[in-house]
Amino acid sequence: MGNKTFSFGDIRIREVYGRYYLYSLEKIEGNKMK
Fold first, then answer.
1. Which contiguous run of DSSP H or E holds residue 28?
2. pTM for the structure as a whole
3. pLDDT by residue (tens digit) across 1-34?
4. Distance between CA atoms of 4 and 10, rounded to whole angstroms?
């Protein structure tokens, strides 16, 4: 049960970091375009 809770939390954290990472890449690419 503990492992399942940890796995679920890990997936959520990865999802949030993944979105933030993509957002950062878009901002960096946008700055390069200017």
1. helix 2-33
2. 0.46
3. 556 666 777 888 888 888 998 889 888 888 776 6
4. 10
Q: Give the pLDDT confidence score for residue 11 in this predicted structure.
A: 80
The Cα 6–Cα 14 span in angstroms is: 12
| Dist. CA 8–CA 15, nearest whole Å | 11
Nearest-angstrom CA–CA distance, 26 and 3: 34
> Rounded distance, CA 24 to CA 30, Å?
10
Q: How far apart are CA 15 and CA 33, in angstroms?
A: 27
Q: Is the dihedral of CA 23, 27, 28, 30 positive or negative?
A: positive
